[in-house]
Design goal:
mainly beta, six-stranded antiparallel β-sheet, 3 helices
Length: 478
């Protein structure tokens, strides 16, 4: 019989595993039916089908659950399905967890160790060239059918990809139609290999270039401009001897600097240049652009790694104030000598999982949308990355002003996403899952992007709880 999940923060309360594959036809809509274009909001997150092998594990170590809200002529349907990875199928056959601790293959059951792909693909739903991909940065993607959510299989660009990993944060260039991406630990666990790749507008892999990082650090996100690629490497570090001994994959070491690799898109990594600053952390890029040799990179930056379960090498205790992720601008001058850069904060509001109008990717922009944390209000999860958001907000990067909506003391928010209905960056709607912790249930708020503080203009009322999905994408029906 299946054992119960542990009574720990990763598996209780609103974070308790759902394990539900759902078909919900005609979601109840409160308020006016949203005037969104016909399309689909895909979301992906971790939802373990079996309890941990070794007593406990991290929230993000769960099987990938792909979900979708399909908007059609004012109606909305919901569907969710597990991504049937090799790992998922092996454990389903065994009716128990076979794979060990988060990103540590040396803790796996001997029956699968080194024999079965341990990919979980549980972080980002991504669309490019007619393909829906399930992504997680420690493995290659899986392809999923966009209508049924059936798993098509592991995806490696017809065998052309050499990197063992693909980021959970690719970038689609709105001008060229290319998908630019990278993989870190590209040559295997705890290696310093980083692979930069490009798939053309047809979805064909046309470029893969490798380079070495100063250490094996966490590289969760990156940025592109029309002329440059920017890949920051943060000092949350993997060491093979520690992992082999059954230890954690990641430990933060802020005695090491943060490094930023920048190279031209045209000539590639042969012209790579490194910049650096004292150790810090960021999980998510907002956007970037360049004006000639001057590059602007906006991202959510914290003094320490914001995940409480990643310890500090020095033994320093977790400090929520230092973990706060503030929208911050880094400015690089490629025409000047040296390895330093300018830095300034964009707003005094902090939060994470920022999203822009993706038609502005790699270009100057004005607005972004994100989950916001107000420490004076109730916070129902640790974080802020991946939870703890008690507001949904829109930030004006020109003025620093924030347009926020709170809800009530029993609400939290998951990643928002912007759905355009016109050419303007705030001409459209913002969708965000609203978690009702007192009801053990979730809704979807549909916000007018020009007036977030008004609250939802429509609410998709759901009869169940939606376990946290990490990242998603909007795909127009056309």
């Amino acid at each position: 019989m299946t054992k119960p999940f542990p009574d720990s923060p990763s598996y209780t309360g609103h974070d308790a595993p759902s394990r539900l594959e759902v078909d919900l036809f005609d979601v109840e809509i409160i308020g006016e039916p949203p005037r969104l274009p016909n399309g689909t909001w895909y979301r992906l997150g971790p939802d373990p089908q079996y309890p941990p092998l070794h007593g406990d594990d991290f929230f993000i170590s769960g099987d990938g659950m792909m979900s979708m809200f399909r908007f059609t002529d004012g109606y909305v349907d919901y569907k969710s399905r597990y991504v049937r990875t090799e790992r998922f199928l092996a454990e389903r056959k065994a009716r128990r967890r076979l794979f060990g601790d988060y990103r540590n293959p040396f803790t796996d059951d001997p029956s699968v160790r080194g024999k079965v792909d341990r990919a979980q693909v549980n972080t980002t739903a991504w669309w490019h060239a007619g393909r829906l991909l399930a992504l997680k940065e420690d493995s290659r993607p899986y392809q999923v059918h966009p209508d049924t959510l059936d798993t098509i299989g592991r995806f490696d660009w017809n065998g052309k990809l050499r990197s063992e990993t693909v980021t959970a944060h690719p970038k689609n260039d709105p001008e060229t139609g290319e998908m630019l991406f990278f993989g870190y630990e590209a040559g295997g666990i705890a290696t310093t290999d980083i692979a930069f790749c490009v798939a053309n507008e047809k979805g064909e892999l046309v470029r893969e270039e490798w380079f070495q990082a100063p250490y094996c650090g966490m590289v969760h996100d990156f940025a592109i401009t029309r002329d440059y690629v920017i890949i920051p490497v943060y000092p949350t570090i993997a060491k093979l001897d520690r992992i082999k001994a059954g230890g954690l994959h990641w430990v933060s070491d802020l005695s090491q600097p943060t490094w930023v690799a920048i190279f031209p898109r045209k000539t590639g990594v042969k012209d790579l240049r490194w910049f650096r600053r004292p150790g810090c952390h960021s999980y998510h890029v907002i956007n970037a652009w360049n004006e000639g040799p001057r590059i602007y990179l906006d991202q959510c930056v914290s003094e320490i790694n914001p995940f409480p379960f990643i310890p500090d090498e020095s033994g320093a205790p977790y400090d929520p104030r230092k973990a706060a992720t503030y929208p911050t601008r880094w400015i690089f001058d490629m025409s000047a000598p040296g390895d330093t850069f300018e830095e300034r904060r964009l707003t005094n509001v902090f939060g994470d999982v920022p999203r822009i109008d993706e038609r502005r990717t790699g270009a100057p922009y004005r607005y972004f949308y994100m989950g916001v944390v107000d420490p004076t209000k109730p916070i129902h999860k640790s974080g802020p990355v991946g939870g703890g958001f008690n507001h949904v907000g829109k930030i004006d990067v020109q003025t620093g002003k924030a347009d926020l909506w709170y809800g009530d003391d029993n609400c939290g928010f998951q990643e928002p996403i912007f759905v355009p209905t016109g050419p303007g960056e705030d001409e459209g709607y913002v969708l965000a899952v609203i978690d009702h912790y007192d009801q053990n249930r979730s809704d979807v708020g549909v916000f007018d992007a020009r007036n977030i503080s008004r609250g939802p203009v429509a609410t998709l009322r759901l009869p169940m709880r939606l376990r946290l999905a990490v990242h998603g994408c909007w795909v127009n029906a056309t």
